UniProtKB/TrEMBL annotation:
This is Nitrate ABC transporter ATP-binding protein. Keywords: ATP-binding, Nucleotide-binding, Transport. The keyword Transport applies. PANTHER family: ALIPHATIC SULFONATES IMPORT ATP-BINDING PROTEIN SSUB, TAURINE IMPORT ATP-BINDING PROTEIN-RELATED. GO terms for molecular function: ATP binding; ATP hydrolysis activity.
Length: 218
């Protein structure tokens, strides 16, 4: 599904974080929003997720965003796994809350854990998994819900370089064909992952990824 943001304005108290920002993400497109801390990247994702009030308009395939919905899923830097639930049961949790029958949600959870490379780790608790493995569980939990739009808020920022590279490769594979909005402050990551890169900062200028290095150095 496509995503359209028009004249988005978001503020906290007297501070305006985003002003008159517009963006289109085509169906199946992977768009990366890059920029320094505090430029409004995470605020953009929270607005699209329907978690903060905003001015302007946001729509998914023509349907207005007026609050949270299962068709938009947000992936955070912190994995948010419940420490007393196994990897499998963490992936199952949102499906259970949606009323998906036990056998169906278990099959979906197992399938997605396998797709993210965690077959055999279904019964492990979060404390028994590495940081990268926990992020894989979070990704499986997100995708098991079959969202139309995936929103990713610097999900690999706390990982070491080798694990980060592995997760970048995984995301490229499992999110192929899924409408995705990914934010990062890392220029190399933006260039590697994005079909298109948007640079937030002075002027909020949109750039193609082959021009991003020149854009951020300007």
């Amino acid at each position: 599904m496509s995503l359209s943001v028009r004249s988005l304005t978001v503020g906290y108290g007297r501070s305006t974080v985003l002003a008159d920002f517009s963006l289109d993400v085509g169906t199946g497109e992977f768009v990366v929003v890059a920029g320094p801390s505090g430029c409004g990247k995470s605020t953009l994702l929270r607005a699209v997720a329907g978690l903060v009030p905003f001015g302007g308009s946001i729509s998914v395939s023509g349907q207005p965003v007026d609050g949270p919905s299962r068709d938009r899923a947000l992936v955070f830097q912190e994995d948010g796994l419940l420490p007393w639930r196994s990897a499998l049961r963490n992936v199952e949790l949102p499906l259970s809350l949606q009323g998906v029958p036990r056998a169906q949600r278990r099959a979906l959870a197992s399938s997605w854990l396998e797709r993210v490379g965690l077959a055999g780790f279904e019964d492990y608790l979060p404390r028994e998994l590495s940081g990268g493995m926990r992020q894989r569980v979070q990704l499986a939990r997100t995708l098991a819900q079959q969202p139309s739009v995936v929103l990713m808020d610097e999900p690999f920022g706390a990982l070491d370089a080798q694990t980060r590279a592995s997760m970048q490769e995984l995301v490229t594979e499992v999110l192929s064909g899924t409408t995705t909005l990914f934010v990062t402050h890392d220029v190399d990551e933006a260039v590697l992952l994005g079909d298109r890169v948007v640079v937030l900062g002075a002027g909020e200028v949109e750039r193609r990824r082959d021009a991003i290095l020149a854009a951020v150095r300007a």
